[in-house]
Amino acid sequence: MNLAKMPRRLAALALVAGLGLTACGGGGDSGGSGSGNGAGTETYPLGVAMALSGANAALGQDFVKFMEFAVEDANKAHASDGFEIKMVSEDTQATAEVGLNALNKLATVEKVPAVFTAWSAVVKAMAPASEDLGVALFNVGANSPELEGAGANLRNFFPLSSVNVRALGTYMAKEKGAKKAAIIRVNNASGEGAADVYKKAFEAAGGKVVATETIEQDAVDASSQVSKVLAQHPDTIHVQPLLGEAVAIFKALDDQGYTGQVTTYSGAGEAVAVRQASGASMNGVTYAALSGAKADDPKVTALVDRFKAAQGREPAGLSYDVYMYDSVFMYADIIKQLRDKKQDVTGKNILALVDDVKTFKNLPLEGSTTFTDSGTVIKDTIIKRIDDSSANPAADPEVVTLSAK
Amino acid sequence: MDLLLSLAKNGVIIGLLYGLFAYGMSLIIATSGVLHFAHGLTLVGSAYSFWFFFQEKELGVFVGVLAALAVGGLIGVLVELVIYRPLRRIHATDMVFLVASLSVLTLGQAAIVFIFGTDPKSVRPNEFLRWSADVGPFNIRTWDLLILGASALAFAALYLLQRRTAVGLSFRAVGDNPQRAETLGIKLQHTYVWVFLAGSLVAVLPAMLLAVQNPVTPSMGFDLLVKAVIALVIGGIGSMPGALLGGILIGLVESLATYKLPTEWAEFTLYALLFIFVIVRPNGLTKGALRTA
């Protein structure tokens, strides 16, 4: 192809299309009884589909590391039960299309009975496909409220934002007396779902959401979004980002001198990279943390120390990592119970057991978790405040705990 | 009205950042004819160097800037010497240059992941960088002033370079007609090395500006690369003033479109503008002149 000889409009289109290319990165019941290793121990595969490359890889790689720790620990704990778990991980790049490829490979090539995954767009895309493939799909790190009932084979082990963002919206209107709120959210399914939940909760509690603006993932500047919401003079602004763009939002709010209460969720509030890059502009931000395992729990700090020893840095999203760790122990518990019942470890049997048992005790960090009839979990919400963004999130003072009941 | 003015100011600032990145790329394209997508790697590499020496090793801002300039310039020159020069020798087509350039970008990003990991790095903002003040209807930040200053510096420096120096004049001569330039005694290979060095050094400015405002990640700058390419198409591929005009125009369109439309429509309006230019004015605003590599 000689661009000089090519018609100009075609050359221009080819140029943009070529650049765009670089950005891209059967039915039945899957699984079965585990395979023996010759020493009388059965091995059961666990499919893990996370973002291992791309913009979200910092979180995804940490998730996998914490799950590796969990597999190691769960295998020790269940050594006398005669089985072990073998983790097989695939990359989703946090996108629906790559995620579907990962699910297909895990189900058809690796023959896993269950796939653990995260990121709302990925989970949403995988949910119907998991039914066709006959695998149990566990959401262990996505929070879009749209995931409730999104598929017959989907169970949400991670609390959806319908829990903590709803609690935060209600709290700001009812307890803090905010009358007008604005929302700045990332332009994806997770951001849209959470913003909708916040709006409904805030308005049900007597407030009014006067502006909602979106920002693209990893955007470098949020000045326009902030200018637009400030023009509506809100009492409070709720920020629902993913990672990179969060910094742009907090800095723009600080630059433009907003003095009202800024709120966000744990994914941004506890993200060390966001806090470091935002600097003092994040001080004073209030966020909804998930209860259960707390960052200052000795078991959590021991796990963080183990991570730091292995990786030489702090984990990027601790509030998620504890769920990753516990989820593996739930899987081990499911395998044990199925084996006790002399049932095969298949996608169908896993789902039936979860729906039957509902509560899983002895999770190392959270203690226990209970699934609702709609396949989600309910947790209390802790409202925390960032006084010093350079400090460990565990040091953030608790403002109030809001009961899920 | 205040909101409109505020959006216009935001648009000009972010547009200058796009333009600044596109400017270096345009200089390279205009002179060498190579669609140098690996320019994105220059941006990422120099941003990581700035972060590493300034923040991680705490060697001061001066060392950080020098390291970023050195790494940015080195990447540009190495890509020319190791990738493009051998391709020129075998008379590779423009498509081969394009694929090679994209491959360098992808491989380079993978190398950065291998060295630094995928977790975002950050240059913690100090009081100087956090300063802002209201001036009339505008909120002016340190970052805005740095972008204005860097843009003025880069545009003035490249203008003078191209008009007052032998090297700059050779850029223009080779860009116009490399065969004729060669008959006039201009050494093509030397000119290409110099132009990749100059264009890459310009990319170091937006790299450092991004690093002080946003997390540094291996994929950073890809969005900027896309916007820069759109700026080049709109401004005129290979045209220096076009890169600047295109950058400011897309910054303004992206920002002002949100005055009445929801912000998620900003990108749509940008691509709609690109589509209009491709159909109605494919040469861009300034009728850029792309030649073969």
Unreliable stretches of chain B (pLDDT < 50, length at least 5) are: none
Oligomer state equals: heterodimer
- Which strand-content bin applies to the residues of chain B? under 5%
How would you characterize the largest beta sheet of chain B? 2 strands, antiparallel
Quick check: average pLDDT of chain A? 86
C-alpha end-to-end distance of chain B: 48 Å
Specify the number of helices of chain B. Answer: 12
Share of β-strand residues of chain A: 15-25%
| Tally of contiguous helical segments of chain A | 13
Q: Give me the secondary-structure category of chain A.
A: alpha/beta
Order of helices and strands of chain A: HEEHEHEHEEHEHEHEHEHHEHHHEEEE
Q: Helix coverage percent of residues of chain B?
A: over 70%
The biggest beta sheet of chain A reads: 7 strands, mixed
The arrangement of helices and strands of chain B along the chain is HHHHHEEHHHHHHH
| Backbone shape of chain A | globular
- Structure classification of chain B: mainly alpha
Spatial strand order of the main sheet of chain B: 1-2
Shape descriptor of chain B? globular
Count every beta strand of chain B, where a strand is a DSSP E run of 2 or more residues: 2
Note down, in words, how this protein is organized.
The complex is a heterodimer of chains A (405) and B (293). With 405 residues, chain A is of the alpha/beta class. Chain A is globular. The termini of chain A are far apart. Chain B is mainly alpha-helical and 293 residues long. In chain B, 74% of the residues lie in helices and 3% in strands. In chain B, strands 1-2 form a two-stranded antiparallel ribbon. Chain B is globular, with a radius of gyration of 19 Å. Chain B has twelve helices and two strands; from the N terminus they run H-H-H-H-H-E-E-H-H-H-H-H-H-H. Classes of the chains: A alpha/beta (405), B mainly alpha (293).
List the helices and strands and how they pair.
The complex is a heterodimer of chains A (405) and B (293).
Chain A: H1 8-21, E1 35-36, E2 42-50, H2 57-77, E3 83-91, H3 96-109, E4 114-117, H4 120-133, E5 136-139, E6 154-156, H5 161-174, E7 180-186, H6 189-204, E8 208-215, H7 223-230, E9 236-240, H8 244-255, E10 261-265, H9 266-269, H10 272-278, E11 286-290, H11 298-311, H12 318-340, H13 347-357, E12 359-363, E13 367-370, E14 381-385, E15 398-402
Parallel strand pairs in A: 2-3, 2-4, 4-5, 5-6, 7-8, 7-9, 9-10, 10-11
Antiparallel strand pairs in A: 1-2, 11-14, 12-13, 14-15
Helix pairs in contact in A: 2-12, 3-4, 5-6, 8-10, 12-13
Chain B: H1 2-32, H2 39-56, H3 61-89, H4 94-116, H5 127-130, E1 132-135, E2 138-141, H6 142-164, H7 166-176, H8 178-183, H9 188-213, H10 222-235, H11 240-256, H12 266-280
Antiparallel strand pairs in B: 1-2
